[in-house]
Amino acid sequence: MKDIGRDINPRAREFEEYRRAVRDLCGRFDNQYWQKIDEAVAYPEEFIRALTEAGWLAALIPAEYDGGGLGIAEASVILEEINRSGANSGACHAQMYVMGTILRHGSDQQKAEWLPEIAAGRLRLQAFGVTEPDVGSDTTAIKTRARRTDDGWVVDGQKVWTSRALQSDLMLLLARTTPLDKVDKKTEGLSVFLVDMRDREGQLTIKPIKTLMNHSTTEVFIDGLTLPESALIGEEGQGFRYILTGMNAERVLIAGECIGDGRFVIDRAAAYASERRVFGRPIGANQGVQFPLARAHMALEAASLMRWKAIWLYEQNLPCGAEANMAKFLASEASFAAANAAIDAHGGFGFAEEYDIERKFRETRLYQVAPISNNLVQAFIGQHVLGMPRSY
Length: 392
Hints:
The protein has about 400 residues and is of the alpha+beta class. The chain is about 45% helix and about 15% strand.
């Protein structure tokens, strides 16, 4: 079958080296590996270790801190190829998008202390503690509170959907340092901390949340968590602005993952539909099978172009919130449509674990809701791009 879905991008040849290397690594972990991980609801430790040893999870860490020194474009390609190979980059993607907050707003001391350890794989930064059960996407209303002490900070509160907290050594944590009723703007008074989660018995309680897909997500209860002054990233009270850096990167990288997922299921479905014969001919000759896959492919290609536009703006340090959100929206919608079309193309076999379509169907469904609901993306575009009244 033709190698479809390659980006029309001026840097495509530059990225091909990374694509091949990631595909080669992922080839060591076949579909049976992922089926067993999924069945056991386990964390793919062996796979994550291989990615770490190869340096892929340190791609965004500057070379001076022993990282890959690559940019968000390369990171997007890496995550895309992981998913296109049938693996699940959701098990490790946070280490990439969390990096933006530290790289842009962390102190030289913080970078020197933590980044080489993360790059070497001696420490994992996979947890991003932002969302809370009572506020959802209304981030400025979070109740987790960090109070100053003579030695630093004490934090109390609760986080939910903090994925991979059980597999992480470090967590990026957003907390309110000035009460909401004492700030002029609700986006003020929030601060970001880099939390060392090791040896925190009694201060951190982490409970797994069972979900539709194997995503290693948790809720985190914070009770008297003590942090040194050096845990604060940037200036006190500016945390909301800081995490937006990470969130834009997050949306761009999630878009890349969705594109990879979509291309995986379309590759599989197109091959299956070309080989599977019913009533004396390949089922792919039927437009009812062919057209949904063709539409999904076109939607993925369009989403990929928006992804590259967002990346270009991000790399130029230009405003990219709208483009990053649109890329995530378009890619998540396209990947789920592709997975749905792939199930239809496979018929009953689409629900069989051995074909991997049902697993990807579940994985693609997540990104219409996370890391932000597509409804909120539409509200953001309606208000901030089209200039219509605020809807929420």
